[in-house]
Amino acid sequence: MKERISKTAQFFMFLFVLLILYLSYLQFVKAPSITAHATNPRLIERLSKRGGIYDRRGENLARTLKIKGEFKRDYPLGEKISAVVGYDDIIYGESGMEKALDPYLKYPGIPMDPLLVKRILEAGKWAGYDAYLTIDARLQKAAFDSLENRRGAVVVMDPTDGAILAMASSPSYNPEYLDKDWQKLTGDASSPLLDRAINGLYPPGSTFKLYTLTAALESGKEELSDEFSCSGYLDIGNYRIHEAEGHVHGKVNLTGALVYSCNVAFAQIAMKTGKSDFLKFQREFFLTEDFGFDLPVTPANFPPEETLTETGLAQSGFGQGEILVTPLHMAMITSAIANKGTLMKPHLVKVIKNSLGDIVMQEEARVLSKPVSEGTAGIIKDMMVQAVERGTGTAARISGIKVAGKTGTAENPHGVTHAWFVAFAPADNPKIVVCVIIENSGYGGAVAAPVARKILVEALKK
Prior knowledge:
The chain has 462 residues and is α+β, with helices and mostly antiparallel strands. The chain folds into two domains: 93 residues, Penicillin-binding protein 2a (Domain 2), CATH 3.90.1310.10; 313 residues, DD-peptidase/beta-lactamase superfamily (Beta-lactamase). It is 38% helix and 20% strand. A hairpin with a 2-residue loop joins strand 17 and strand 18. Helix 10 runs parallel beside helix 12.
């Protein structure tokens, strides 16, 4: 038995030595020829010209430069656009639109015959397709700069066709220095690699009252003439809902409840609407559904109907409790109201062209859903206009332009409240929707509304 064990051990030792010798042969003898082989993906990556990514007017967002005979990816806007464009790296792969568009950007349709590949690449006659996004580089820079290095996000979209005009996330990173900064970036507690606009989940606070109002009016549970009495708090069983700073709104109608952002009123509105009618609009607005966006979007979080208590429903009515959404979700709700109740499918790609300038793919505007009737959308729009003119959103007023907006101040268990603001303008013919969130910064009306105003002014410049 001992002799058999010894021979078996010797046999496996012999195989191990052979494996070591073979790996050494591959690494030190064959490595140059393997590296130079025409079908080596890294060789193709270095020798082929990756297609460019441009904004809606043709400004460079990501381009390929030839340096010392090899192509290198360059990002002219750096950290201002990385949340959208992402990166293309030989070590860490791709992210963002670099990943989403990789089949178009990287030698699409190239024949995989090794000799033909080598000839094409060495002749420098193969290039990927160019992608033109819906992003407006001018607005993208304005949106990112408006965050002033604070943690948060901005989404700017056209409500009439769903085009994303800007999508900024802060803190960010510069793809130019990805290799050098990778360890620092992955270890940073502020998560600069996270795209907060589509993957950051937050309690929406009072901006969510737009959703609650939609559910209440569309289900017929509330009417414009309904009134509420606010003494600064509301007791539901053993739980007390209170107004910010203990404000007492007194007797308010439905319009006043939104204009002055009354939590007590919206808790009652949600309870009167009922769990079923309240929760079904998460699907109508595609908050928890995959709607085929160009980049992965984290679904919103809603409590299941069977576990939602009366207290939880009341909290949900003013955007607290278990509800968590992304800034893109709030932009979608606002966009539907701005567009007379029709939600257009958000998208980032405008057109893709080959090296000859021929269009190979074009994104068409598409209706995603109609969660709000035109009448209800008009009622909520008028309320939002009054919220800016005389309510909690006065910091977003623009001389000569009617702005519709809603503030939000979201409590969270991790510190100071998050500041939200959603808006669209001009209110009677909306061209721009803006959603702003700034983490742990205080009141939405004081912090986020001025940021939204700045972006709206920039967007509406001729």
